[in-house]
Amino acid sequence: MSFSSLVKNELRGIYGADHCVAAEMAAIINACGSINETGVRIQTENAGVAKKYFCLVKKLFKLQIDVSIRNSRQFNRSRVYSVSAPLIGKIPDIGIMDVPERECCKRAYIRGAFLSSGSLSDPEKAYHLEFVYADREKSAYLASIISSFGLKAKVIERKGHYIVYLKEGENIVDLLNIMGAHLSLMDLENLRIVKDMRNNVNRQVNCETANLTKTVRASVKQIEDINTIARIKGLGYLSDQLEEVAEIRLIYEAASLKELGAMLSPPVGKSGVNHRLRKISEIAENLRGGNYD
Questions:
Q1: Side-chain half-sphere CA neighbours of 138 within 13 A
Q2: What sign does the CA torsion over 116, 73, 64, 34 have?
């Protein structure tokens, strides 16, 4: 089961006060429903959404509800669930877009929106949560409710639909908390910790590998320069200080500059060793160019 499905399973078990139930119903209607003179109907391919909407209507109104199931001609003949109820007159503002005044109702609205139109990517791969709407106004309305909690939800158009989305693990954790998906929140936090630790280890390994590669390449070049001097002039051509570091470098090919410096008499710091090796490199280049002075 996907992480998104796990979140929805948790959200389906949350029921609030009657005013919150109305807000959650409004979110589902705005995402996949329609209102006419006879009542309200939602259509969804998600059985869990249909069941939750059915339970919300029963909890709030105790009305006769019609449920039908048919096979869709699209998407490999998946099932489409229709839930209809004669709600007009009972609650005339259901489904219209007035921002809920209570914070708990805003939470319920976001919860209903995620159940009916939301999805969450696999957090092992990426942090991305989105809601899909066919209507620009309804997508902007949801974004405004999310933004009221201090989260910046963005809206983009994609293939004729309007996408309200959040990125970054911290923002998604905050939204799960707002919706009341606390178990999913803890699972996501655990995944984030493991993922961050793995990334930190990978970065450290990559950094150490890059440093080691750089050290090896520098050592190979230094040995080539020393061998050039030895072949053309002999190491006695160098000053005593340069000859000493050259001889030690030939013996300890993989040693770092700090380790080389500790072997000199008297010991020399890393920058001092680097300076001497650069002088050796200049001398080797001069000899390669035929300058024997």
A1: 22
A2: positive
Provide the whole-model pTM: 0.68
Residue-wise over 47-74: b if at least 16 C-beta within 10 A, else e? ebbbebbbebbeebbeeebeeeeeeeee
Say how far apart CA 83 and CA 94 lie, in whole Å.
15
At residue 132, the pLDDT reads 95
Looking at residue 92, what is its pLDDT? Answer: 44
According to DSSP, residue 13 is labeled T
DSSP string, 119-136: EE--TTT--EEEEEES-H
Q: How far is CA 141 from the centre of its chain?
A: 25
Place of tokens 């060793």: 273
Segments of the chain scoring below 50 in pLDDT: 91-92
pLDDT single digits (tens) 159-176? 899 999 998 888 999 999
Distance separating alpha carbons of residues 139 and 131, to the nearest angstrom: 8
Class level of CATH domain 3-180: alpha beta
Domain boundaries, the chain: 3-180, 205-288
pLDDT at 293: 59
